[in-house]
Amino acid sequence: MDWGMRNRLSKLIQSDGHCFFLPIDHGYFQGPTHCLEKPAKTIEPLLPYCDALFVTRGVLRSCINAGISKPIILRVSGGTSMAGKDLANEGITTSIEEIIRLNATAVGVSIFIGSEYERDTLLNLSRLVNECEGYGIPVMAVTAVGREMEKREARYLALSCRIAAELGARVVKTYWCEKDFEKVVDGCPVPVVMAGGPKCRTEREVFEFVYDGIQKGAVGINLGRNVWQDSHPVAMARALQAIVHENANVEAAVEIYSGEAR
Question: Phi/psi class of residue 245: alpha, beta or left (left: φ > 0; alpha: ψ in -120 to 50)?
């Protein structure tokens, strides 16, 4: 691994081996998502607690202060929407020249294993790896499930993560699952980061799955809605930071959240 790739990965995954990514890319297929109508306002108080932003080029240019020091993971796949027939029919939306021009630390692309467009999205990932490796830019594969949330079980997730790693992804973002999540992580030879998915019902529910996933080998989280749609987003971000970087357990996270939310 050359210096540029190692340097970029070190900005994403911190010296303790963990990371907290904050995704605000939801609008690329959902439109103006609740609490993300004005991205700049939403993320400003949360930036001290996350390690990187996951964002599209349009929002990056129009809403993110160019003076921030947080690494940028650029969302570079898309082409579908909630109004369309199939969320899996994505293509690559951003050229390597644009990725470099925007000074992205990494890029993110979705793959849809088991869908009608499995081959297309896996070739999207492969082509992106081919281009980005030449410039020392890591690719994060997102094991997306579209509308089929029932696919979030260990056997499917392990298959998806391993294929992504085999095709050259440097990091894989996937869902946590209650049963056998350690098999998902153990079967993936590159770092695994947990996605949040739909908003959880309670703060404790978020802390429980994040803590469990970290204990079972995930290096960190990529949580959006469960942070900025929370009634106390700063408290949530601080508590999650404690689990990810300070080895806090669920009870400690609840206490931090309660203290910050007062």
Answer: alpha
The C-alpha atoms of residue 39 and residue 50 are separated, in whole angstroms, by 15
User: In terms of CATH, what superfamily is 3-261?
Assistant: Aldolase class I (3.20.20.70)
Cα dihedral across residues 10, 13, 18, 21: positive or negative: positive
Catalytic choice (173, 179, 183, 199): 173
Which stretches of the chain score pLDDT less than 70?
A: 146-151
- The answer to whether 41 is a known catalytic residue is no
Question: For the chain, how long is the longest CA-to-CA vector?
Answer: 50
Q: For 169-213, what is each residue's pLDDT tens digit?
A: 999 999 999 999 999 999 999 999 999 877 788 999 999 999 999
